[in-house]
Each structure stands twice: as C-alpha cells, then as structure tokens.
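Entry 14: structure prediction run for Glucan endo-1,3-beta-glucosidase 8-like. Input pasted below.
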Amino acid sequence: MIPSMVVDLLMQNKINYVKLFSASDNVLEAFSMTDIGLEITMPNQSTQKMKTQADVNEWVVQIIVRHPNVHFMYVCIGTQPLSTRFFNQTYPEAIQVLDWMQQALNLMNKSEIKATMSHFTDVLIPAKKPSEGAFRKDLEPNITKSCQILQSYNAPIGVVIFPLVNVNDLFNGDTEFAFLENNSTSVFKDGDKTYSNVIEVMYDMFDVALEKVGCPNMTIIIDAIGWPTDGIKDGNIPNAQRFYQGLAKFVASKKGTPRRPGPIDVYIHNLSDENKINKNAGSFMRHWGIYKFDGQPKFNFDLQGLGRDVKLVPAIGITHMPKRWCIFNDRYTSDIGKIAYNVFDDEVKYACDTADCTALDPGGSCSNLTYIQRLSYAFNMGFQKAAQSVYNKSCYYNGYGKIVSNDPSTPSCTFPVEILAAEIPNFTGYAQSLAHVLKPSSISLMTAVVQMLYICFTLMCTC
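Run finished. Output tokens:
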C-alpha cells in the first residue's frame, strides 16, 4: 500500500493526528500539504549515533527542514528509551539528545515544534495506589533530568499505558478493571479519590511520580494506549471494540482523571498489526491494530466518542495475491502416528521463525485447532510470508505441504492470503526504516499506526 493511500485512509476517517516511528522521505511527502499533525520519532538506535549538537542539527535538516509543507508538531526522542519491558536495553543517551533536539528546532526557527519523550509504566515502582507512585530508583536520575528539560521548554511528557498488561501485572488479571464502564470489583479509594479503572490509576501514578522528582503539573500525553486482538488471554476483537468505544467516550468527555481533571490528548496504538515486532515481550505485541492486514477494519468504531455504531472507512486499492493456501498434505495423515512429533514440530518452528504465528499461542484465535490444522496454519503463514513462491519451495516442508484453492479457515481462525506490496520506501539522510504511523490527540481523538516492514509500506505486510 503506497503512502498516499494510507494518508487517504487517515483523511477519510477524519484522523487529524498521527505518530510516525521514524519516517522515510516518500512517507513524509505523502503528508505534505495536508492538515494532519505529525509526531515523528527519532529511533532509539539513532539516539546512540547523536554525539554532538551538530549531529542533531543535521538530523533536523534532513527530516524536518527538507519537508516544509509537512505539519510537524512533536519530535519524540526514542521509543520508551528507559523501558526494559519490551526492549533488551535502555538508551540513556536519549536524555542529552532531548535537549539538543529542542535547541536545534529553536535554532532553525521551528520552536513551535516540541521535542518530547514518553515512558511505559514499567519505569514506575510496583504499586497499586496512585499516591504511592514513584519512579524506579535506578531510573530516577535520568527521568528527573528529562522532565526538567521538558519543563524548561514547556513541552509535554508522554506515558504509555497498555491496560490489559497493567491489570495482569498489578491487579491479579482483573480484565474488567481495564475497561472504562466502572463494572470492576477492583474499584478502590485512594484518600478522597475513587479509582474505577486501571487507566486513571496509571495516569495519576505517573503524575505523582513526576511531582516527587520536582516536575509537578506537567502536561501528560497518553502517547500510546491500545488493546491487542490476538495472542493473549482476553486479547480479542470483541474486547478491543468494547475498550476503544469506552476510551473514545472517556476522551470525548474531557473529564480527565481523579487527580488531573480536564482533557487528555490520547494516541491510539495502533492502525494496523505489525508482524515484525520483536516477540520477546509476547507475540500479542504484534496485534494492536484496529485494521486487518488488508486494510479492512476489525470492528465498528466511533472515533468521535459519541457511542454510535459507525463503520471505519476501509483502505481502497488493496490487491490480494491469488486465493491459494499451503496446508498439511492429508496423504501423510497416517504418518503422524508413526513419525516422532518433533519432526513436524520442527517444520512448524521453521515456518514460524520468520512468519507471524501469534494466533497459535495460548489464548490466540487459532489456539483451539487440531494438531493437523496447526501444522497447516504454520505452513500457510510461511507460504504467504514468501509471497506464495513456488520457486523457492515455500510450501514444501519436506514434502508434507500442499497448495490448495479451498479456504481452510475455521469459524474462529482465519488462514490469511498475502497482499501485494506496492512501493519501496525511499530513505535519505538520517531517515530510518518506518516502523509505524500511529495515533492522535484529543480533538479528533484517535489515530493510528501504519508501518513499513522490510521493503513494503502497507497495512500489516507479511512480505
């Protein structure tokens, strides 16, 4: 899917704010002359390359100054650079880059663009009450320095909240406490304030922690929030729809939290699934999209928060590959009792090492398949990942694979067919591979993530 098609999808859905996790030239050009406000990201790895103010100045020239007709709003330094929940290391270099970035923007008469930084809630100590909120001692010096830099430039700070993860970590897996309808038995009082959902808890806990390090009353953006639709218990489409509808009403109400009443800017994570996200933190991390891989919405969603049964506008112009699937060859069904299971399991591992088999995980949409169906699902994911290539024997699997034209999907488990990649992103200067396009703010409320995986720019590409 070419960048202009993605921008059209955003505009048709009246999504006015988007976050790019680093951007290529042709992606930024697609946003040129539109009213869509962008938050772009300097990737964690790029922050390590910034050794001087001059390095950051050059980055700003290449990414921002060269695109004068793009509506830049924020530059986020790193992707949760101090978090260890979803990454193998931290990036403390990002703190100095944060200061250099705002200086570079000011130097080039771009002071209306603010440098910012966001953190996942794992930077907080484990606590259940907002009043107990505090940053981890090992991170406190860097977070203190970063919030002081942001305060000096009157810039916001971001918090990343994944409610289903938070309730599993802190509230004994009480999924109901992750929703906003106030139906949970985990409701509690903290002083004179009542907390009925984990979103308000984590937001206010982050606010208390900031106050304790000398950064009170900062503008806090929810820089990412979402609900996975596969690969984890209670991570499914009906729950995601319920969550987003409740979140939209919450944001539209502008009621805020018990500690911080008033409107909150919120970025939805995210527009589409991402099949190249590292699985170390859980395969469900690949399945946050409100759109399916082919640009079709997963569920109805009223972005304005009015509770209407509104259909999102689908992507136009998506082309699927032929309706062909790779499955386990039933001629060898009898072999399953004669040959060690690890032989077949090795074939599944071979397919799933590169393809996305999240749906087979416990709690996933395909976790209830029979053994043969699981083999077929894995074979097909590898086959589609290889663009249905016959020449490289992508459906061979030691002779156990077979290409068919009849859809092997079950009522609960979809065997996908690949979509065609349409464009190769054009990278220049300091631009890095585009990992997403995502999210919004409070006015239009939500937004999204688009992504480039390998050399394709598409809504969930398995190429």
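Notes: Residues 423-463 have pLDDT under 50 and may be disordered. Will compare against the previous run tomorrow.
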